[in-house]
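Support reply, case 0932

Customer input (verbatim):
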Amino acid sequence: MATIEKIPAVVNFAEEKGSVEIREISKPDIGEEDVLLEVVNVGVCGSDLHQWTSNHSWPVNYPIVLGHEFGGHIVELGSRVTGWKEGDKVVSETAAVINPNSAMSRTGLYNLDPDRKGFGYGVNGAMTRFVKVPARCLHTVPAHLSFEKACLTEPCCVAYNSVVVNSNIKPGDRVIVIGPGTIGILCAAMARLCGAEVAVVGLESDRNRIEIAKQYGCDGIIGDASEWARERDGLGADCIIDAAGASATLKVAMDLVRPNGQITKVGWGPQPLGFSLDPLVQKNVRLQGSFSHNWPIWEKVIGLLASDTLDVTPIIGGVWPITSWEEAFEKMHSGQVVKSVLKPV
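Our regenerated output:
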């Protein structure tokens, strides 16, 4: 009788706060259109932290292996997989399950497919040695691009979609990013690439992360950003990127944005608003949500990373073995680092 190979994984096993631990799981079996990926690096996302602290606002299929920012080498191919071979260096998109016949998927916006399920909450993710990945999710990683950087393609794609695709930012615009987490800082970096003047706003506890945002040519502000917003003509900033994990920051965004400006909301917050949205009407402001990403965005971002046009080195606070996942989570949660990266092997 064959022995079933067991591998350690970071598992979120229940909804209660702190319900994450290392567990032994079986090596995944792949389907005919999947590949088996041996994970080299996996980034810790704010959503992983939200599931750990149980303040998330999305359904989770417990127990679940965490991790959706990952890259590795293909070690096994499904029988119907073409265009890939064992040993290929790849990163994976997050849309692990989609309905290919939905209206969103048929127009290439499968990230908005109502049936979409992602790694780390819908299906098992990559905080383990091996992960099953649909071949349609794969992108080639250039040989010279390290996995430590490549595994951050996913949050860079979130930022690209928020800033480049879903926001109308022009050179010379003034942009305020609320929330100096990974997504906030990457949104700021993308806005700088678009030619904007950018300020990143946070709390006193965010001071270390604000300093990292400055490395991307941004102004850093602790607390009230009103003076910066109105510095040019007294009317406010052209665009506010709300990347904070709370609902209340939308009220701050409405105050800081100029008439006929834009607010792009990328940060999740489960709390009810509890305030009037009338300023959106009075100021003629566009409120835009931004979620996830799709194929062309991944190809653009990999190009930016490979050319060093976008350098993610400043946000990487360290690499930990998955057995030290809790330290890596704590470092991010406390604001000591912007991004923790895990190494399963």
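We compared this against your earlier run and they match. Two observations from our side: The chain has two domains: 6-152+312-343, 159-289. Residues 153-165 form the longest helix (13 residues). Please reopen the case if you see a mismatch on your end.
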